[in-house]
Amino acid sequence: MPTLRELELAFVRGMFDTTDVTAERFICANGMAPAARLAIYRNNIVHNYREALRDVYPVIERLVGEDFFRFAADRYIPCHPSCQGNLHGFGGEFAAFLEQFPPAAGLPYLGDVARLEWSWHESFHAADGSAMAIDRLMTVAEAALPSLHFQLHPSCRLLASPFPVDRIWAANQPDAAESVTVDLSAGGVRLLIHRRGDAVAIEPVGDPEFALLAALMQGMPLRGALDAARAVDANFDLAAFLVQRVSDSTLAGFVVPTSTAIGSVAPPGRGQGSQRSRLQKRDLSVNRA
Amino acid sequence: MPATTETVVSHGRITAPGALRSRPLATGIPARSGVGLRAPHYREILATLPAIGWLEVHSENYFGGGGQPLHYLERIRAEYPISLHGVGLSLGTTDSLDQEHLRALKTLMARIEPGLVSEHLCWSSVAGRHVNDLLPLPYTEEALAVVCAHVRQAQEALGRPILVENVSSYLQYSHSTIDEWDFIAEVAARSGCGILLDINNIYVSACNHGFDARRYLKAVPAAAVGEMHLAGFDRIAGLLIDTHGTRVADPVWQLYAEAVEIIGARPTLIEWDTDLPPLAVLLQEAATADRMRGERHAHAA
Fold this sequence. Notes:
The structure holds two protein chains of two kinds. Chain A is mainly alpha-helical. Chain A has a domain at 1-107. Chain A has helices at residues 4-16, 34-56, 58-64, 66-79, 94-99, 110-125, 134-137, 165-171, 207-217, 222-232, 238-247, 258-261, 273-276; strands at 149-152, 157-161, 189-196, 199-204, 251-255. Chain A is elongated. Mean pLDDT of chain A is 88; it is low at 260-289. In chain B, strand 7, helix 6 (180-191) and strand 8 form a beta-alpha-beta unit.
């Protein structure tokens, strides 16, 4: 008689490796072979994962066709175990899998299209961020601005690709026009995937802004992030960035480092004209120290 | 831009924030029929506010913590009591319970204030690997101890009793020593949890394994039964499979009528997960359950 642990381990092994028949020994035949009974569970499990992948990757399925998608999914599923009870977490490595999948070698953009779909999926389910009023940013002393750590909205994801994956994605939506053709040699894109209201938006952004957002996402203070942007474009307009990304909630908050917190907040109602208008372009000169 | 408007826009709410609490929240689940809430029906339910007692969702669909799913659930919650039904906690695993999963559920409970919280009498993971399916347990003293310890831990972490649902099964283990109905009764007695009695699952398992479904109904402690489920099954290769993709079958309606006589009137859910039909079909099924429960309960009294 197996312990519960032994039974569970053998059962799961047999679900993904049909040569492992250990669990059959623990099951009553009762009019139907144990192998056939276990196969019902195996089929259910694989079916559930296949459907989960189809839900997250409809564009990939449309690009490669149902049969190829199923063929790829059935090879992905056994070697990419689910590690949580929430099925929405399944499928995150499908992009890397497709890039290494020899039968898909002729479609080099598949991996990044899959990355875009996974980003969309994560963004759709992500937590709600708190909205940041631009007024709050305007209470920060100008000298303290470079040391601020900005928090991006939980729904923000970034994706850089050498392929026009946003156009490939758009051309393969259910409501897309039939005759769209995408020029694969049209060049790469840098994308910000984020929620606007309840809808997920896929927004192309310029190289400097992408560098800045990527640095903020890594937890860099504004100073370092701005350096990254200005390494790409020395004239990058920080003020315009802040106004746009606070108002569309990409920037969902900021933390003032403790060492500069005291005295960094402008006293209210004292007519701090130059400080209160720092979000205008002329006043924004963050030191690149 | 006034701060309040900004908040509304950033959360994408169509209604003003105050509208979410426009009426007192009913937290209990009434002994009426409810239907499973699925994304394709969100808008129709909000637009038509059908006369159903309550709605049930799969908890894990809202673990992300934001966006459209939570937005709609909160708006629907403002109109109906909600039951949170989990499919992924894996109460029967020999691993320790997934604390992150419990935390996500607790966060969702704080936000939705559900009338009922339920899970399944099954296992779905071992050694950190999940199969995201409801696998049957062997009915042994060892499994009983594992499940009871996990139910107690879950209830402690969540701060309230949960209901545990009988699953349908396509196999039995040769070393089981306890009948399923005695097993689930014992789980309730030892852990203090309630029972979510799935009438379709009893029927499916009774046919697959050749036991008497009425014996099951008589063996479970009526006082512990806090909810019933009804769903459709399919017949595949000589077995009944719990597909949740069709109308409730006649023999399951019959068994439901008997359950109401034996156990009493309980909140009853029409479950439908695959090949989702128009909302009207779910509402018809719910109305049938309401009518049947009314007749049988009166008859029993």
